[in-house]
Amino acid sequence: MTSTAVLEAIVEPTRRQILDAVRGGERSVGDLVEIVGMHQPGVSRHLKVLRDAGLVEVRSEAQRRLYRLRPEPLKELDAWLEPYRAAWSGRLDALERHLERTSTPIRNTNTAKEY
C-alpha cells in the first residue's frame, strides 16, 4: 500500500520540481533554491516534507547539505499504479482493434505529380 505521506508530498508542484532536480544526483539547498526560484526557507520546508515522506535523504559535506532521491517510495507507488496502466492499455488495444475493423481506408485522389 502506498504511503499517504508520499501522495501528499508529490501532490505539490514545487516538491515534484525538487524531485526532478535530485533525480539525476545530489543537489545542495542553494542549487535547489536556484532551480525552483523560491527563497531558501520555502525550499527547506518542502525538503522537510519530502524527507519525512522518505523521498529524499540528506548528507552533510562541510557547510553544505546535499539532498538526493530515495526511489523506494516511488517504486511502491509505481507498483500500485501498474494494474491501472494494464487496464488502460487493454482498453486502448480494444479501441485500436475496433477502429481497424470499422474504418474505411482513405484513398489518395491526387493524381498530379509533384515536382
From TrEMBL:
HTH arsR-type domain residues: 1-89
Keyword Zinc among record annotations: no
Coiled coil (residue ranges): none
Key words, A-Z: DNA-binding, Transcription, Transcription regulation
A Pfam family it matches: HTH_5
PANTHER family given in the database record: TRANSCRIPTIONAL REGULATOR, ARSR FAMILY, TRANSCRIPTIONAL REPRESSOR SDPR
Protein name stated in the entry: Helix-turn-helix transcriptional regulator
Lineage of the organism: Bacteria, Bacillati, Actinomycetota, Actinomycetes, Micrococcales
